[in-house]
Amino acid sequence: AKGAGKNQWRRYQAHLHGAMVERLELRSALDHAVHEGHFLLAYQPIVDLTTDEAVGFEALVRWHHPTRGVIAPAEFLEVAEESGLVVPMGRWVLDQALHTVAQWWRTLPRSRRPYVSVNVSARQFREGNFVEQVKQSLAYAGVPPQALMLELSEALLDGGHDAIWDDLAVLRDFGVGIAVDDFGTRHASPGDLRRRPVDVVKIDKGFADDTTLIAGLVTLARTLGLTVIAEGVESPAHRDLLIRLGCPLGQGYLLSSPLDGTEALSRMSGHLPL
Ligand code: C2E
Ligand code: CA
Ligand code: CA
Ligand code: CA
Q1: Most buried of the four, 84, 162, 211, 227, by CB within 10 Å?
Q2: Among 182, 106, 179, 126, which Cα is nearest to 149's?
Q3: 10-residue mean pLDDT series, the chain (274 residues)
Q4: Which residues form the EAL domain (predicted)?
């Protein structure tokens, strides 16, 4: 029995070791990807539910792995966060998204120019001069700050992130839009929201079938004068509910999957109906 226990322990050790090696390998592959620029962005339309027009596009990162193909963020974001690689990756995402929105703006008439919405992680503020980086990237791409929205997780509304909100206030005064992502998951209070520089809240896709909760979140947001975007709109019934509740903007597979930059432009130009 003692021998069996020992064998089990060895197997457990080998398993742990395997998981650690896998993580280290992922990290070094990711490091390589960041230096080689092996990423791409997909752009998912944010749609006016009453007119079907796209008002903006959320930029979603994918790892374009040379042998494994396209890898979703769920598989590498945790390692990117832990290792700090999310900082240089985030810089690439911002530059690439602004480069793409600049192309759209050059092509489209003034009345149809969408913004691009970029997810940012707290580490990007702490490591590196984020405010200057955003201003420089906008200038380099040649688009005004109104072409950019930044998405921050609702978790940042909790205490202890004042320095980040100071930076966001500067960017918002400059003209960049600020959105709170995953809205409803952390029960931010009206007071938390009111004292932060926020324009938009995005209702988390996890609430798609909770009518009462969605109604409450929409009412709260509207009371505070915030724009609401509902994520995870997958059915006509969900869309109709949102329209009835007074939430005019949605994002989700019913409206459109994430697209590449060219497809996104085609939709905006009206070649493909939304
Ligand atoms: P998120 O910010 O909540 O982004 C929305 C996610 O929902 C995307 O997954 C999108 O493809 C997916 N989605 C879109 N429509 C539907 C729908 O109708 N139903 C459902 N169930 N899902 C839908 P994706 O692209 O896999 O991204 C996952 C998460 O990775 C994002 O969640 C975001 O938190 C993070 N992420 C993506 N790009 C970046 C980035 O550039 N930087 C950072 N820091 N995080 C990113
Ligand atoms: Ca987001
Ligand atoms: Ca979200
Ligand atoms: Ca989410």
Answers
A1: 227
A2: 179
A3: 81 84 90 96 97 96 94 96 96 98 95 96 89 98 98 88 94 98 87 92 91 94 95 96 95 97 88 48
A4: 23-272
Q: Which residues pair with 6 in a beta bridge?
A: none
CA 168-116-229 angle, 5° bins:
80
Return the amino acid letter for 212.
Answer: T
Residue 28 CA to ligand 2 center (angstroms) comes to 26
Probe residue for ligand 1, chosen from 205, 229, 249, 274 as the CB with the greatest number of ligand atoms within 8 Å: 205
Tokens 């004042």 — which residue?
A: 162
| Probe residue for ligand 1, chosen from 41, 95, 231 as the CB with the greatest number of ligand atoms within 8 Å | 231
- The ligand that comes nearest to the alpha carbon of residue 202 is 3
